[in-house]
Amino acid sequence: MTQEELLRLIDQAAVGDWHELILVDNQLSSLPPEIGQLTNLQRLVLWSSQLTTLPPDIGQLANLRELDLWGNQLTVLPPEIGQLANLRKLDISQNRFSALPSGFGQLINLQKLDMRGNRFSALPPEFGQLVNLKELILSGNRLKTLPSEIGQLINLRKLDISHNRLSTLPPEISQLENLNELTLGNNPWNETFATLVQRPMSELMAYLCSLLEELPQFEAKVLLIGEGAVGKSSLLRAFNNEPFQVNLPTTHGIEVKQVHADNPQPIETPLTLNFWDFGGQEVYRITHQFFFSRQALYLLVWKPREGREENALEDWLERIHLRVGDEAKVIIVATHGHERYPELDYPSLQARYPHLLAGHFTVDNLDSWGITELKAHIAQVVAAMEHVGVPFNVRWLETRDELQHMDRTHVTRDEFDIICARHGLDKDASAALRSILHTQGRIIAYEVEGLRDFVVLKPEWLTKAISYVLEDRVTREQGGYLDHRRLRAIWQDHGDANKEVYPQRYFPYFLRLMEEFDVSYRISEGDASLIAQLAPYQRPELPWQPDSPLKDEQTQMQLLCEMKQNPPGLIPWLTVRNHRWATGLHWRRGVFLRHRDGHEALIDYVGPPYNRLSFTVRGAYPAHFMHLLQDGLEALIQKRWPYLDYSLSVPCPTITQNGPCPGRFSLETLYRARRAKRRTWPCDKCMKEIDIGRLLEGYALPAGSFSQQLADMEARLLAEHARAAGDRALMLRNLQSLRAEAAAMTRRVLRALTDEAMA
């Protein structure tokens, strides 16, 4: 539409006293001032019209009730927009706005405001004047904070703040009593909020409400990590001015102690450092990762006499980074400083982990040499952490402190709630506090069946119980096979005065907890468990290998996951997570599985320097089983190692004169090629065109086949989505139609594949 055509249309609307004007998919860069003549206009829709500016005259549309500017190129709204006193609905989504004009708060009759997909980094305080707002959509912006005035939107029912840069929320949101729909996903929440946004909204609101009565807390979690026998426990004793003890017993699992330090900030409140002393033996490392926190300081302790490689400093730094990224801080501490000067290439480590490392020190626990300086530096690093000094409700703090100082290792959930109630916390507040303390590692409180009624107040009591199983000689000799008849010998009748004795009534809870940790799974009708990380290194004899011949009715699919790092416990966790398909064939670096429909899978891992995980699935239609395994792998990576750098690819199936072709097809590239309606894709090694269906489903179907139809339908779905984006009702109808078509096509494909396999 040209400007002349638009002017003629405006004239027609003025003469005809139009109440609605809809302009969609035009190449208009601006509206003429004459738009202000349409004073009786109630609805103005300007979808996807390439607008870059709006005239001030738009403020003359005194009767306008709905203004929709979706999908333009607008960067500013004219201040005159505030004159639209009757405006009920305003959609400015998918533009380039970064700020709202002065006078925006005058739109007091506004009920729905959609601002998604812009560039807002903050909202003005006058936002709180929109007291009649019922629906507010702010997703897909750059918001780092929300104004406290948002709590004045007393009629708000729906709030979407997903896909922003928020780490916290203002306590005033708890005052929105009519809010019943809150969307929070895809924000970099701090540890507390990351926990609560996954919980019922009532618990989040209880926490936010508690912050209206706040008290700053100056404490942090400090984790002592490193190889065994390097002096971690002695270092912790030195921090508390305890005398050096020769031949200190080995740490089993985790020990937790508190250390106080002077606050370097001009505040009288001292710093409380909650030290977690982690046993360094390899068997503990999988379970220890559950207690790694983003908002924590790590002391990586090593012994110079054994060298940097023996102390595996890079491996420990990588484990921290895989789990928590760059948000935590690490200080490298060399012990036994009087024995040998530490040869540490700290600059190279700092270049590799610039945001993670926070200094390096040398101490000697024997006479506390260097301890004072290290402790002062720890206080400096902790005091600078974003979460230190963050407010917390005083009644919640008192509840937490009572729980922490109880002379009990655990309580029931009802007892936990009673203690909370004594401090004025209702059920929602009690549940929120329990979730927060669980995330911080102060307690262990799971919501799953068999665990939810048991709240562990001393996590070290529990981790020791698990460590006794991991250390058990008989279980290790039997390749991780744990006969439940031996639990009493492990946890009760061990005859070791230095070990905890656990009553038999806790045995079912410990077993269930190890399953929740993905440490073990039940076998032999429940009277035994497999501890996967104790599986033998020796590969058992398998029914087939990837290069062995296929049976007549079989086809084979392969998938490779190549990683830049070596995630600890990858195969043990995959073994446990896929135990429903277990065949009893497992080893330290692999597992052989069998689906109930007869399909079989081999998962094999090659560690450093390759860090390559391979999946091979065989059967009549291997794609289904392969997709299950792939989804499980990616879910595991996201949960355990969110910062793992990995790629998925499919090996080239071509056999050359020199053996299998070494070519790889990126899985992402194959999906893109299919969306582009490509039937084949070239291998960059053997240069052959390979059928995409063969790579993704295991079958190379003929041209025009169901495989191609599926690709065509996917392309149509994307096109329909784009075409109908302006009309949500139309989009819904199209999606429903395509969904029905997809279901019918899926049935035809499966029937055809079954016929082909049976032929």
Descriptive account of the structure:
By secondary structure, the protein is of the alpha/beta class. Among the domains are: about 5-195, Ribonuclease Inhibitor (Leucine-rich repeat, LRR (right-handed beta-alpha superhelix)); about 195-215 and about 390-455, Arc Repressor Mutant, subunit A (Orthogonal Bundle); about 220-385, Rossmann fold (3-Layer(aba) Sandwich), CATH 3.40.50.300; about 705-759. Helix content is about 30%, strand content about 20%. The chain contains 22 helices and 32 strands. An 8-stranded parallel β-sheet has the order 1-2-3-4-5-6-7-8, with no helix packed on it. The chain has a 7-stranded antiparallel β-sheet with strand order 23-24-25-26-22-27-30. Helix 3 (about 200-210) packs across helix 12 (about 425-440) and helix 11 packs across helix 12 (about 425-440).
Map the helices and strands.
Elements: H1 3-15, E1 20-24, E2 43-47, E3 66-68, E4 89-91, E5 112-114, E6 135-137, E7 158-160, E8 181-183, H2 191-196, H3 201-210, E9 214-216, E10 219-225, H4 232-239, E11 254-261, E12 271-278, H5 285-288, E13 296-302, H6 307-310, H7 313-324, E14 329-334, H8 346-352, E15 357-362, H9 371-383, E16 391-393, H10 394-404, E17 410-412, H11 413-422, H12 427-439, E18 454-456, H13 459-471, H14 473-477, E19 481-483, H15 487-491, H16 507-516, E20 520-523, E21 528-531, E22 555-563, H17 570-577, E23 582-587, E24 590-594, E25 600-606, E26 612-619, H18 623-640, E27 646-651, E28 655-656, E29 659-660, E30 664-666, H19 667-675, E31 680-682, E32 689-691, H20 692-697, H21 706-723, H22 728-758
Parallel strand pairs: 1-2, 2-3, 3-4, 4-5, 5-6, 6-7, 7-8, 10-12, 10-13, 13-14, 14-15
Antiparallel strand pairs: 9-16, 11-12, 17-18, 19-21, 20-21, 22-26, 22-27, 23-24, 24-25, 25-26, 27-30, 28-29, 31-32
Helix pairs in contact: 3-12, 10-11, 11-12, 21-22
